[in-house]
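Sharing in case it's useful to others searching the archive later.

Someone asked me privately for the predicted structure of Quinone oxidoreductase, so I'm posting the question and my answer publicly. Question first, with the sequence:
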Amino acid sequence: MKAVSIKEPGGPEVLEWTEVPDPSPAAGEVVVDVVAGALNRADVMQRMGLYPVPAGASPYPGLEVSGRISAVGTGVTGWKVGDEVCALLTGGGYAQKVAVPAGQLLTVPQGIGLVEAAGLPEAVATVWSNIVMTAGLKEGETFLVHGGTGGVGTAAIQIAKAIGARVVTTVGSPEKAERARELGADLAIDHRTQDFTEHGPYDVILDVVGGSYLAGNVRSLAADGRLVVIGLQDGLEGRLNLADMVFKRLSVHGTTLRTRSAAQKAAIVAEVQEKVWPLIENGTVKLVVDRTVPMAEAAEAHRLMDTGRHIGKILLVND
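And my answer, the predicted structure tokens:
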């Protein structure tokens, strides 16, 4: 089969479409013939050498795919060859085939095409596991997500709105602000000209930026507020006011989906299938796709993501 390998840490040009060995399913796994995959910011970080591959994971980037099961390992029940699925991965999605633990498989939601389904697992599982399972966002609370027009942001706006929260987001242009409001954001803040801390307090913040945002996030949390940091685009360090933490009884969580155990991921996937898939099937939560790019041209897709001009997901499609 072919897959996208990373020749060395660097820019999009280090991605290479090359022949690699076919995967085979271990016990409890299936092999999926990949119809499509999707870009995530973690793929860019991995390409740059800033996101180490977990032990035992595929060295190829790609954290979500859709496709058809072509082989089933021992001990797998409930799935068979030919089933159309989408899947949350630990890696390896930029390929023609990938081995996946059966617990990380999802059905393709009714009304969603097989190609488009590739853009769902990572973003939706990231949002649900962090704002609901970790932060406990509730109806009537105020929720802030930074980067509201990325893959995670577009999902977060809609899921938080479905929960009944007041939704605020930061964006980088008037066009993106308008799109965020169309998705359900009550307030879209242009971070280039406005200070998000002036529009709080927030009960829950989902931060894909990190770095210098830490102090402002903590300062703008309400009493008993919860901050979940899932991205490091703005750097690895930030200042933290412990007085704010103590006197407002705040919680700060740093999480990543990729390094969780297979059992933890299976629990998240099961809850997503039960709680979020119905929202997608009834149209409450819509997948936002910026464009599709051939899998063999993953470098071009990365160049687009590096510009930050996309809205929603960028999909990679196999022939």
